[in-house]
Structure formats: C-alpha cells, structure tokens
Amino acid sequence: MAPSTARRYLLINPNTNPLTTQRLQDVLQPLVLPGVQLLVQTARFGAPYIACEASHAVAAHACLDAWASHRSSTSDPLDGVLIGCFGDPGLFALREVSGCPVTGLAEASFIRAAALGPFAIVTGGERWKPMLHRLAAGLGFGAQLRHIETVTPTGAALQADPDMAIEYLSKACQKAAHQGVASIILGGAGLAGYARMLQAHCPLPLIDSALAGWEVLLQQQAPAAPTNHDGFYAPWVGLPQAFSQVPAKGHD
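The structure assignment produced for this chain is given below.
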C-alpha cells in the first residue's frame, strides 16, 4: 500500500484522561485544513492529570511510548508532533528521535507571547509554578516570563467544572494583568478553549496554549539532514516491544 500523501500530525496527551484528549481534539479539529490529518494518542500509563514533578517525569516516558507505538504501527511518516500538556514532558527526547518538528503547549505559548513582550501565565495547580519557571528558563524565555498566577484547583478539576473554572480563572487573569506584562498565557490542556470565553474579563490578550501549540507546530520546519531520520540511539531492556520495533539510528 502506498504511503498517505496527507500531512500527518500526532497529538499526544501525556496524561491518561481520555476527556483531556477529547477536549484538545474538539478545540483543534476545526482548525485542521483539507489534506491534513490530526492523529491523537492518549498515554497508556501515568497519571490522570500532571501536577507535580513525579507525574511530569512519568509523562515524559508516556510520550515516548505513545510515539513509539504509533511509529511501529505504520510506515507513513509524521509531519509533526504536539505534546498536549502545558509542561512539555519529553520535549527534547521526542525532538531528538522523531525526525520531524515537535513542540509542546508551553513552548509554543512562550513563542506566541514573547512576540508581544513580557508575559504572564495563569494555570491550575500550585506545584506548577517552579516547574514552569524552570521550563521557561531552559527554553530561553526566562526573562520574558514575569509572573505566574496559579489557582488552587488542578487543571483536571477546572476541566470538570466549567463554571468554577470561569470564576477562578477570570480572577487570576485580572491579577496577572497588573504585573507589567503584555499578554497572559492560559496554560493547560484541560483549559483549551477557555481563553475565548475569558477574554471579555481580561484587559490583555489571552493566549490559548492549545491553539498556540497547533499554530506554532504548523510553522516549524523539519530538521535538516542528516538529523531528520527518526529512531532511537540506544537499545532497550524491559520496555514495551514498540520501542524495539522502531528502527535504531545506531548504537554506541
């Protein structure tokens, strides 16, 4: 069978909650143009929501597993991978092995927000604050990130209760707007679509992390040869068979 000629993008939800995957798909699918396929994968293992260092670390493994499972099931190449988490677990690893553009909701949002000037983040889950500061610094956006406003409910809790989400997030956005920033990122897969609903409550531009992820991914170029071939460098022990089925780039 001949490979598909459509441009194919893989959206990976690194948590195990299928409702989060569905929310991302519902928000992004209307933006998918003819000749483009949006494929989705939900993590096979890990946490139902990512809200701490440990769940973030496991989610990175789950992202690699989702990619390897997809890669071993088809010969059709991918044109890009989007990590559907505002924390980008596994970003650098996926970028190394996938041979195609890779971004996450956080990195893409930073790119969009930094184009407007210094920015703030509003998100759910108090433990995200130091994690996001570290991620922004690692991606080169530490100076532009001026403020992070977290609300006590996690992203999963906000996703489950839209009325509560509007109440908490609108207040948080109003606080963040007074921190000397030009825009505010509404971060979180579970909050996809909320920026549009909250914009009337905020005097500054709100950036939807899911929309930013899709827009930035479509604009990225494939890595230049000879680094544009997907595969792992190391052999694996004790991991699912899909990891070994992906062609290796070479073993040291």
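Interim note for the steering committee: The chain has two domains: 7-104+215-245, 105-211. The beta strands are 7-13, 36-42, 80-83, 102-104, 119-124, 145-151, 183-187, 206-208.
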